[in-house]
Design goal:
- The complex is a heterodimer.
- Chain A starts with a strand and ends in a 15-residue tail after the last helix.
- By secondary structure, chain A is of the alpha/beta class.
- Chain A contains 19 helices and 21 strands.
- In chain A, helix 3 packs across helix 4, helix 13 crosses helix 14 and helix 14 packs across helix 15.
- Chain A is globular and about 75 Å long.
- Chain B is 70% helix and 2% strand.
- Chain B has 18 helices and 3 strands.
- In chain B, strands 2-1-3 form a 3-stranded antiparallel beta sheet, covered by helices on one side.
- In chain B, helix 3 crosses helix 17, helix 10 packs antiparallel against helix 15 and helix 15 packs parallel to helix 16.
- Classes of the chains: A alpha/beta, B mainly alpha.
- Chains A and B meet through strand 17, helix 13, helix 14 and helix 15 of A and helix 1, helix 14, helix 15 and helix 18 of B.
């Protein structure tokens, strides 16, 4: 039985650069009790579609030249949400259709308790509901989403809750009014995999219990594989393919869907493993990075946050070592401490046999050319004020690479060739590039000083799957061309499996497991690694089309 | 594409894209408010630079028995000449499209100082000003022809040769034209206002520059090094924030000379903590940004990291604050002058306001015109500050770049 039917929906957003056709006449159908996954890369219009259905886009900016959103009421009547009055629409929101958002940290009001916020949502939907009843229902809904100690949490403020718990509260709030349809806009993207799998299970359970339909928006095919009944693939505001779970995922018809699936790290064509030498390139012994916690008027150090606690590791020449862990596990801190962007609190770092962990910044400078970093966020990793040419040639000049400015410009344009960007990019500013292009420039900057080892700190986390595949392949190419050693910091297990020779697993500042990637991912020894690997949403079953072909 | 083409200057220039500064400037100037503000300030700037040519009792050029002379030029001070030279140079640089801001500023400052020193040595304006001999009736008897200034009254020409001097509303006097009337001593109000625009612009810019330089230095050091330096710096900031500017000014004026420079310095010295706070916050934020971390990782020297990678990105909120700071400096001077504690003889808008209420009658023209000028100037700076803030606002900026980016991305893929 159809619950929501979207016909030829168009959404046009006004912007200074002219009208943007964010949604270009899409058709969607969601049945009662069904999960429809809307998949697409960033900018494909999937969130705008969700917001259009609930009419949450600001009226001054968005309008719908065409289309209807038909919602079937419980009594069987059908109404077009786009034609409803604002008052009638507010009846639909919450009561009939609820929505949960991506960022759990900012979607709860910090000055009200959890309980107050859920109670308020209930009372807005049913103004006649007595306070006491509303509070009871609110508490029940917290129990339903399996929060620990719901009675305690009920009277607590959002800052006391972790990201996963907040997302549970958001779900509780959305479910308290017992909607027919839940729209979930990337609800697990900001969460760690282990938390993600719990939230996905929760949504799945609740949906089954209540017979609620879910419109699940995501970019992650692993998640799709886990929860979708039907899948719709979106690109540039159009739905290119729509169909059952297994049809779309394992026998895709449209070339775009195929290219997306091909770009998943687990489906990328593997390269021959390189023979790494046994010469130790970088070694850390009992490395500690503690951050002092200061309190009071005189900022006395009361305790320490042990971001990296007694970690020892070895990286051999020519190896790609993956450093895996969840957010807050200290993996980025470790990476930064290894290249001395952070001063270690204790322990030693040896680079090619010489101790560098305790050198003064002045004495460490010669090693800067050998050890480089590429950062996660392509937006902030380039100075917006400098042209790419300046960004690339400045480090060269400082380290005496190249004879003259013209020579360095020539070297810089060769670097751009290396990362497959046109040479005229040299004279552009960072804002003129897309995220993937900026990440390439970030890589070329690291290469500018002829490094031996590059720490790649979540380099692909902010990128779309297809761009991620390009960047990963580029890194592998560069590695074999220049004989680089890479320390690849990531939380994405499939990226680890694709890219790395050896894997280190970090948990709460400590290294819990290390070994060959195949062994760590296939047969984890440590309990934490086991939960981590198990939590990764995967596509199971083999693809029925040839990977690598489009 | 060959390497020679890359090195080619023309090729570079053709491909040169606009930096953040140029983008912010153009998006600021797209705002109607900023346009109006910039128009008024531009007008004020021209008036201030060419004040001696616009309002002067002495003829600009006259010919007596076939001999050309310029009585006005004889009285030009070194500052007058230096101002005109710098202004013309700035216009020239703008027309030639030399947009390297740092170098331009350097050239202008150097040219200004040089002309000032030269003129100081060469020019020796007479100490005694005699205005009577240049009155139209006197001059026309002697000279063949005369070109006089549009407003033929100097700011300190109290028209003592006429008997009926004193407060006059506009249009009262039959034999002389005072567009804005006269002030208490009989000098032409418009002329005084024109010359006072120098003070208004100067005090705002100089005082704010002093504050900005101090604020950027202290704020930058506190932000980048943090720790103990930050803690000590913040206490210093708090101490300076507790000093009431106006009372300090009053005290200084009471004990020392009524000097314009002391005023500028005091306003500057008491208003830097605001800028320091902004800069500190920006430095703290930028220090953790990936591009700064990358600069550190590349082993760039500290000076480059501070001045090339952090400072240009931290200057935005300071500029916004500065445009409001200029307005408040102008108001501080006007307040002081209004209280009768400003400069003694030199014209100032606030002092004219003071005269509006001093005699038994309310002299509306003395309130309206200078008051209007102060209002318009302060308002203009605020409008520009507002537009700058919008232009620098990361939210609007991000939205713009995001849309344009997604559009170009889509184009590239299709």
């Amino acid at each position: 039985m159809t619950l929501l039917q979207v016909n030829k929906l168009q959404t046009v957003l006004k912007s200074t650069a002219g009208d943007v056709h964010a949604v270009k006449g899409i058709d969607l159908k969601i049945n009662r009790g069904e999960t429809l996954c809307l998949v697409g890369e960033s900018g494909s219009g999937k969130s705008v579609t969700a917001l259009s259905i609930l009419r949450l886009l600001p009226a001054g900016i968005a309008h719908h030249p065409q289309g209807e959103v038909l919602l079937t009421r419980r009594d069987g009547n059908v109404e077009d949400l786009l034609q409803l009055s604002d008052y009638a629409m507010s009846e639909v929101r919450g009561k009939r259709i609820s929505m949960i958002f991506q960022e759990p940290m900012s979607s709860l009001n910090p000055v009200f308790t959890i309980g107050e916020q859920i109670t308020e949502a209930l009372q807005l939907s049913w103004p006649d509901m007595p306070e006491k009843v509303a509070r009871e229902i609110a508490l029940e809904s917290l129990v339903e989403v399996k929060i620990k100690d719901p009675q305690v949490r009920f009277n607590e403020y959002p800052h006391r809750l972790s990201g996963g718990q907040r997302q549970r509260v958001m779900i509780a709030m959305a479910l308290a009014c017992q909607p027919d349809l839940l729209i979930a806009d990337e609800p697990t993207t900001a969460l760690d995999v282990t938390v993600q799998s719990k939230i996905l299970n929760l949504i799945d359970d609740l949906q089954r219990d209540k017979g609620m339909a879910v419109l699940f928006i995501t970019h992650d095919f692993g998640v799709v594989a886990q929860i979708a009944d039907r899948v719709a693939v979106m690109r540039y505001g159009e739905i290119v393919e729509q169909g059952g779970h297994s049809d779309v995922l394992y026998n895709p018809q449209h070339s775009y869907t195929r290219s997306l699936l091909n770009a998943l790290p687990e489906n990328l064509p593997r390269q021959k493993p390189q023979q790494a030498s046994s010469e130790v390139m970088l070694e850390a012994r009992n490395l500690k990075v503690w951050f002092p916690v200061r309190q009071g008027l005189f900022r006395r150090v009361t305790s320490h946050v042990r971001a990296v606690d007694d970690v020892s590791l070895k990286i051999n020449r020519g190896e790609i070592v993956a450093l895996v862990g969840e957010s807050g596990s200290g993996k980025s801190t470790l990476g930064r401490a290894l290249v001395r962007l952070l001063a270690p609190t204790g322990g030693e770092i040896y680079y090619q046999g010489s101790e560098i962990g305790n050198l003064s910044p002045q004495n460490f400078r010669p090693y800067r050319t050998d050890l480089q970093v590429v950062f996660q966020d392509p937006l902030s990793s380039l100075n917006p004020r400098l042209t790419i040419a300046t960004t690339l040639t400045e480090p060269m000049a400082v380290h005496g690479i190249g004879d003259s400015n013209d020579h360095r410009i020539e070297l810089a344009s060769q670097l751009l060739d290396d990362v497959q960007l046109p040479r005229d990019c040299l004279w552009r500013y960072p804002h003129e590039f897309s995220g993937g292009q900026r990440q390439r420039i970030g890589i070329s900057r690291a290469l500018a000083v002829n490094p031996k080892l590059i720490v790649c700190d979540e380099v692909t986390s902010a990128l779309d799957v297809s761009v991620q595949a390009e960047i990963l392949q580029l890194l592998l190419q560069l590695r074999s061309r220049y004989g680089l050693t890479l320390l690849f910091i990531t939380h994405n297990i499939s990226v680890v499996e694709y890219v790395s020779d050896r894997t280190l697993v970090m948990h709460q500042g400590k290294l819990v497991e290390s070994g060959e990637t195949a062994q760590v991912c296939g047969d984890p020894k440590h309990t934490y690694t086991k939960t981590l690997i198990d939590a990764v949403p995967r596509m199971n079953g083999s693809l029925q089309f040839q990977p690598g072909l489009q | 594409m060959t390497s020679t083409a890359i090195g080619d200057r023309k090729f570079k220039r053709a491909l040169r894209r606009r930096g953040l500064g140029a983008r912010v400037f153009s998006s600021t100037m797209k705002k109607r408010g900023a346009q109006i503000g910039a128009c008024w300030l531009g007008l004020l700037l021209c008036v201030a630079v060419f004040a001696p040519l616009l309002a002067n009792s002495r003829p600009l050029l006259m010919s007596v028995d076939g001999v050309l002379s310029s009585p006005a030029a004889k009285y030009f001070s070194a500052a007058d000449v230096a101002l005109v030279v710098v202004f013309l140079l700035a216009v020239l640089l703008f027309v030639w499209r030399q947009f390297s801001t740092g170098r331009n500023l350097l050239v202008l400052t150097a040219a200004g100082t040089l002309t000032f020193i030269l003129c100081h040595l060469v020019l020796s304006p007479p100490k005694l000003s005699v205005y009577e001999s240049y009155r139209e009736s006197n001059v026309s008897l002697r000279a063949d022809w005369v070109i006089s200034a549009p407003i033929p009254y100097s700011p300190k020409d109290y028209l003592r040769d006429y008997g009926d001097t004193g407060l006059q509303a506009p249009g009262i006097s039959e034999d002389r034209t005072h567009f804005f009337g006269t002030e208490a001593n009989g000098a032409d109000l418009l002329s005084r206002m024109i010359h006072a625009s120098r003070l208004a612009l100067g005090i705002g810019l100089v005082a704010t520059s002093i504050a900005m330089v101090l604020g950027v230095i202290f704020g930058g050091l506190m932000g980048y090094f943090s720790g103990v330096i930050d803690m000590l710096g913040m206490r210093l900031v708090e101490i300076f924030e507790a000093v009431p500017t106006l009372f300090l000014l009053l005290t200084f004026v009471a004990f020392f000379d009524r000097s314009l420079y002391i005023m500028m310095v005091i306003i500057g010295l008491t208003s830097w903590p605001g800028y320091a706070r902004y800069v500190r916050a920006e430095f703290l934020r930028l220090r953790e940004q990936d591009f700064v971390q990358a600069a550190v990782a590349s082993g760039l020297p500290l000076t480059s990291i501070l001045f090339r990678h952090i400072l240009p990105n931290a200057i935005a909120p300071v500029l916004v604050a500065a445009s409001f700071g200029v307005a408040s400096a102008i108001l501080a001077e006007a307040t002081l002058s209004f209280l009768g504690l400003g400069l003694v003889d030199d014209p100032s808008w606030g002092q004219m306001l003071n005269q509006a209420v001093q005699s038994s009658t309310f002299n509306w023209w003395l309130a309206l015109f200078p008051g209007g000028a102060i209002f318009l100037t302060v308002f203009s700076y605020n409008l520009i500050g507002e537009a700058l803030r919008d232009a620098f606002d990361p939210m609007t900026q991000r939205a713009q770049t995001a849309t344009s980016e997604s559009v170009t991305d889509a184009e590239q893929r299709q």
